[in-house]
Amino acid sequence: MGIEAAGHYHRPVLDYRWPIGWEVLELNPGHVAEQRRVAGRRRVKTDAIDLEAITELVLAQRGQVITERGALFGELAAWAAHRSRRVTTRTATKNQLLGQLDRAFPGLTRALPDVLGTKIGRLVAAEFTDPPDCRRSV
């Protein structure tokens, strides 16, 4: 069975419990359009013509088998959650550092609007975050 990926519209059909032994292929819409073009129906898009193009692609075993997708989606979701946690931690750490720099050097963020985005701002954050060190280096 072949299903053309069409935004979110094809998802309910993909999630259906197909009988054991059925192979469900998800087809790239670009491949279906290319198949229509090869058949000489480039600009015409009807359900019957799409069905013909999908049938030819399924017979040629083009597309991605749906049973393989579960593992891919699980892995992708895990990586996305990991990245989200890393971004949240980085943002919180950056905000804490900027708060400490604001307390140690009032007005610094007015002089350097993107403190951590400039070399001098990163130098201040790395070398002069301890007020006693600041007094010694002057």
TrEMBL record:
Q: Record's InterPro entries? A: Transp_IS110-like_N
GO process annotations (BP): DNA transposition
Give the Transposase IS110-like N-terminal domain ranges.
Answer: 2-106
Q: Which Pfam families match?
A: DEDD_Tnp_IS110 (PF01548)
Identify the stretch annotated as signal peptide in this record: none
Entry GO MF terms = DNA binding; transposase activity
Name of the molecule in the record: Transposase IS110-like N-terminal domain-containing protein
Organism, by scientific name, is Mycolicibacter senuensis
Its lineage reads:
Bacteria, Bacillati, Actinomycetota, Actinomycetes, Mycobacteriales
